[in-house]
Structure formats: structure tokens, C-alpha cells
Specification:
The chain is of the alpha/beta class. The protein is built from ten helices and twelve strands. It has a single domain, classed as 3-Layer(aba) Sandwich (Rossmann fold). Helix 3 (37-56) packs parallel to helix 7 (149-162).
């Protein structure tokens, strides 16, 4: 079936395109993961960003799209979820564009009075670099902080190659630390698929971000608490986060943190997922 020109799938069809339904139902064995420092360093520091860094530091010149092409197969047909469509099949590069559209729409509301755009847990900077190409964000200074050294180094290397200035620092959502950059007041701060790597998010997370006096903070993160326990799909998403050792208290911790500082809190739940079992919610708060 087609809707909005997309090949629509049912929940049952997902088993044809993803190994996850069998894992989630314990038909296929999957060893439960724990996200700790050494696991993050293995996954991102060494296997993902480390390998990309090793390759691209030997190249004389390259584009951001070269890094993306090496990171994953952008032509691959993958199952996705969107709150307005349901499950559907699409090409990985189109799925990335759809995600970016949501980010642009949410972030651009605040650009008028903003001093800069900041991404925390930025990986190799893919999202912030891409957003910076869009006319709404072109005039904003860029700041990115990341947990792994290789991620930070790759952001700096890409920045030189594409000739785009970005201030790079290190951050850790576990101990709520930021070093190497000073975030100016009136920034727009965002996180994307990065906060769920901590075991338990501290209540002081909001207070930690609020010290930078941003005009808005937006989290594009999967939120365990927002998956509906009364649906098969919601339960599968919860189980997915369980098995992967992802954070279960992002939404509640941010909402409670906002209450403490009397910030405005808005949540748009389970908006979109290029992995259908890990859709992001958009949590926005303004001090
Ligand atoms: C899936 S990637 C997302 C990267 C980027 N935000 C994006 O959306 O393309 C997750 C990132 O979170 C970072 N991360 C993991 N643990 C973190 C922590 N405790 N504090 C900050 N970032 C962390 C990882 O190093 C990795 O770069």
C-alpha cells in the first residue's frame, strides 16, 4: 500500500526488514547491553568515529557527504516510523533528510534572537554541520561538544575541510561536564540521539544546561516513558531500549528539572524513527 508516495508497512511486516522483532520477542538471542564508559569508547570512540577519523585524516580533501557515505550505506532501503504515516520503507538518505526536516522546523523557531547553535553529544558533527547549511541557521556561530576524543577530532577535521568554523569541546552527560568551549548566552542548545547513552539521567541535567543561559533547549531523543504500554508497538520500543541499555528517565528527568527552575516544558512524543523501534520525541524547554 502507498501513502504520501511511501511504501507502507504493517507492524507484522517489520519482521521482513528488521532483525529486531525476533530479538525483542526472544526468538533470536541478543545479549543485553550495558552502556558504560568502555562500551561507548568501543562503539563510538574506536569502531565508528575512530575508524572514520583514521581514514579521513589521510585524505587531502573531502566533503561531509564523503564521511556520511562511509559511515553508512545511504542507498539501503530501510523500515522507518513516522507519527503521521506509521511504518514505511524508504532509502536511508531520504530517512536522514526527513529527520533533518523535523530538526530544522523545531530549531528555527528560536533563531531570531539567538547568538549561536550548540550541539551536545554531537558525534562527528553531522547534524550541526547540515543544519548550518540551511538559510535559517547560516548566520549563527557553531559550537559542538562530544564525549569521545575521536568524535571531537573528526569534527575539527571536517570543519577544516569544508571551511566552516566550529568551536569544539568535550561534554559528558553522566557527570554533567563541559570543557574546551564557552557557550555564549542566548544560544540554542540541542541534543540528538545522545542523552540516552547514560545509565540514569541526573535531575540536575536541566540546571546544568540552564547555567549557559540559552534561549531554548531542544532534545531530539527517544523517551522510554513516552512509549505506550497499552500497544504492542509501544511495548516493543520499551523492550528495545531495555535490551540496548538505554536511559529510561530522559523525559521525566527533564520535566522535573524544568519544574525546579520554572522553565516552560513542551513534549511532542514519538515523532519519527529511522529505526522504527527507537523513534525520537522532541522535548523543548525555554528558561
Ligand atoms: C548515536 S550518536 C549521535 C551523534 C549525533 N548527535 C547525531 O545525531 O548524529 C551518539 C553520540 O552520543 C555520544 N555520547 C555517548 N555517551 C555520552 C555522554 N555520556 N555524554 C555526551 N555524549 C555522549 C557518543 O559518543 C556519540 O557521539
Amino acid at each position: 500500500m502507498k501513502r504520501q508516495n511511501k511504501e507502507i508497512l504493517s507492524l507484522n511486516d517489520l519482521a521482513l526488514y528488521s532483525e529486531w522483532p525476533a530479538r525483542l520477542l526472544s526468538i533470536d538471542f541478543f545479549r543485553k547491553k550495558e552502556k558504560n564508559h568502555s562500551e561507548i569508547v568501543r562503539e563510538f570512540g574506536n569502531d565508528k568515529w575512530g575508524k572514520l577519523l583514521d581514514f579521513f585524516k589521510k585524505e587531502s580533501s573531502f566533503l561531509l557527504s564523503d564521511v556520511e557515505n562511509m559511515e553508512k550505506d545511504l542507498d539501503k532501503i530501510i523500515p522507518c516510523y513516522d507519527h503521521s504515516i506509521g511504518f514505511y520503507l524508504t532509502q536511508s538518505r531520504l530517512a536522514d533528510l526527513e529527520v533533518l526536516q523535523y530538526y530544522k522546523k523545531a530549531l528555527s523557531k528560536y533563531v531570531e534572537n539567538a547568538s549561536c547553535l550548540v550541539e551536545l553529544g554531537a558525534g562527528y558533527g553531522n547534524k550541526i554541520f547540515k543544519l548550518s547549511e540551511h538559510k535559517s541557521f547560516k548566520h549563527l556561530d557553531l559550537y559542538a561538544a562530544e564525549y569521545t576524543d575521536s568524535g571531537c577530532d573528526l569534527i575539527s577535521l571536517i570543519s577544516k575541510n569544508i571551511n566552516k568554523n566550529i568551536n569544539v569541546g568535550k561534554c559528558d552527560f553522566n557527570n554533567l561536564s563541559l570543557s574546551g568551549i564557552k557557550i555564549p548566552e542566548n544560544s540554542i542548545i540541542f541534543t540528538s540521539y545522545a542523552v540516552h547513552y547514560v545509565t540514569e539521567l541526573k535531575l540536575d541535567f536541566v540546571k546544568f544546561l540552564d547555567q549557559f543561559k540559552p534561549i531554548a533547549v531542544i532534545h531530539f531523543e527517544p523517551c522510554y516513558e513516552y512509549f505506550d504500554e497499552k500497544t504492542t508497538y509501544g511495548l516493543m520500543c520499551k523492550r528495545y531500549m531495555d535490551l540496548n541499555g538505554y536511559t529510561k528517565n530522559i523525559a521525566t528527568s527533564i520535566q522535573d528539572g524544568c519544574k525546579k527552575i520554572s522553565a516552560n516544558f513542551t513534549a511532542h512524543k514519538n515523532i519519527h524513527g529511522s529505526n522504527p523501534f527507537l523513534p525520537f520525541s522532541i522535548i523543548e524547554w525555554t528558561p
